[in-house]
Design brief:
Helices cover 28% and strands 25% of the residues. With 304 residues, the chain is an alpha/beta fold. It has 10 helices and 14 strands. It folds into 2 domains: 152 residues, Quinone Oxidoreductase, Chain A, domain 1 (Alpha-Beta Complex); 118 residues, NAD(P)-binding Rossmann-like Domain (Rossmann fold, 3-Layer(aba) Sandwich), CATH 3.40.50. The radius of gyration is 19 Å and the shape is globular. The structure holds NADP nicotinamide-adenine-dinucleotide phosphate (NAP). NADP nicotinamide-adenine-dinucleotide phosphate binds next to helix 1, helix 3 and helix 4. NADP nicotinamide-adenine-dinucleotide phosphate (NAP) binds next to helix 1, helix 3 and helix 4.
């Protein structure tokens, strides 16, 4: 048997229960990972309350989670890229568990430069940030506005954009301004008057804007970039439909090759993962509560 967090009905964080489930085994093309750390995502709380059934239907009992870091401890038929004992990070459906079976393709070797918590903070944030900047075709010399620059995705997006040679302006709460500056962006406080505050620090204007927060960021972004062409959101589906800008939906378990840029920057010491808070595995409910409350810079991580 192996430990897992399950929920068997929709509801508040207290529906999450620590339990024992039968040990899973790796099928063809899969490996089994002994999980050391799990990244927490806002989506998991939305799924838990039943708000995402149209997109991610739930079968009870359900194990939450998308991403993990740990050690390969079983290798399925046909897997040649990973071996037992490899330290990995990546995607695994139902990652709030001691043992997770996932596709070998969904995992990358963990860089030695980062610890388990930092490794678990990378997959979703790293892939989403790169996908967002790619969709906006951000290139060297441009100025990009990143909404939610203090968040898990935004923190990585700022650093990837800086590494691509862009000047970055990042929105965050007043409490997280210095954190955003430390990532390499010029921080501005979100909320009313945002357009004026951004204009005051963007001497050559804004070329592109990525909404990685989801709070009324699209309209000011259109105003600042002068159109809808170089505005995109990962977090505001209604706003995307209302204003005609792309909503960048991701795959549930993308290939780990999507992390190439981020992993290269980690090796070059040009990308830092911020773990805002860690929680013991048994306190997954507290971790999701903190995720819903928000405002902590970087990522929340469960440790096993
Ligand atoms: N489409 C996709 O593929 C995809 C992938 C990953 C995540 N997402 C979504 O993207 C969003 C961000 O994810 P995350 O993991 O980075 O979340 P997160 O770590 O909780 O970050 C949330 C960000 O929103 C900011 N924020 C909070 N309240 C705000 C307000 N009232 N006005 C403006 N900004 C505000 C926060 O700033 P402060 O902390 O400074 O207040 C923080 O920068 C979530 O909605 C998530 O579900 C989408």
């Amino acid at each position: 048997m192996a430990k897992a967090i399950i929920f068997s009905q929709f509801g508040g964080p207290d529906v999450l229960q620590l339990t024992e489930v039968p040990e899973p085994h790796a099928g063809p093309g899969e490996v089994r990972v002994r999980v050391h750390a799990v990244g927490i995502n806002p989506l998991e709380s939305q799924i838990r309350v039943g708000a995402m059934e149209a997109v991610f239907p739930t079968t009870f009992p359900s194990v939450p989670g998308l991403e993990l870091a740990g050690v390969v401890n079983e290798v399925g038929e046909g897997v040649t890229t990973l071996a037992v004992g490899d330290e990995v990070l990546g995607w695994g459906a139902g990652s709030y568990a001691e043992l997770v079976v996932t596709g070998a393709e969904q995992l990358a070797l963990k860089p030695a430069a980062i610890n388990w918590e930092e490794a678990a903070a990378l997959p979703v944030a790293g892939e989403t940030a790169a996908r967002g900047l790619d969709a906006l075709h951000v290139v060297s010399g441009e100025t990009v506005l990143i909404h939610g620059a203090s968040g898990a995705v935004g923190s990585v997006a700022v650093q990837l954009a800086v590494a691509r040679g862009a000047t970055v302006i990042g929105t965050a709460s007043a409490a997280n301004q210095e954190y955003v500056r430390g990532l390499g962006a010029t921080p501005v406080v979100y909320g009313e008057g945002l357009v004026e505050r951004v204009r005051a620090v963007a001497s050559s204007g804004i070329d592109a804007a990525l909404d990685a927060a989801g709070y009324d960021a699209i309209e000011p972004s259109i105003e600042l970039t002068g159109g809808t062409e170089r505005v995109a959101t990962i977090a505001d589906a209604p706003g995307s439909a209302q204003f005609g800008v792309p909503f960048l939906a991701g795959a549930a378990t993308p290939p780990a090759s999507s992390l190439g840029e981020a992993l290269g920057l980690i090796e070059a010491r040009a990308l830092r993962l911020t773990v805002a808070q860690t929680f013991p595995f048994a306190q997954a409910a507290d971790a999701q509560t903190a995720s819903v409350e928000g405002h902590l810079p970087g990522k929340l991580v469960l440790v096993l």
